[in-house]
TrEMBL record:
It comes from Falsiroseomonas stagni DSM 19981. PANTHER family: PROTEIN GLCG, SLR1406 PROTEIN. Signal peptide: none annotated. InterPro entries: GlcG_carb_metab_protein, PduO/GlcC-like, PduO/GlcC-like_sf. It comes from the Bacteria. This is Uncharacterized conserved protein GlcG, DUF336 family.
Amino acid sequence: MALTRTATKLTHEAAIALIRAAADHATAMGQPQCVAVVDEGCNLLSFIRMDGARILSIESARRKAETAASTGRATGGMGPELEIKLAIATEGRMTNLKGGVPIIIDGAVVGGIGVGSGTGDQDREVAEAAIKAVFA
């Protein structure tokens, strides 16, 4: 019986690269964003609030990253019958707002990126662009 296992971990260098790639994409689209990167345990690794991004999007970006990392799925696709229940059950830590994307390496979820301050589609676009730029 194995008592330990080896796991791929997201590094702070990767988190910083994701933040830079997201900020570059957000700048190119003209939409300042809040961007959070968490590891597989939902621990914050890196964060930026771009000039002009909404203050309240600080928290939603982090929650989007945490939700994506903990579920292994992009946020925004949950049925409406579940979203309020899960938000209440997790004291607001889970969200169904678009803009959270899991970071998956070799089939394993190693973290999540959450973006907020634009429309849900803009947020998701920035998150996906950052992952593609860093891990493609």
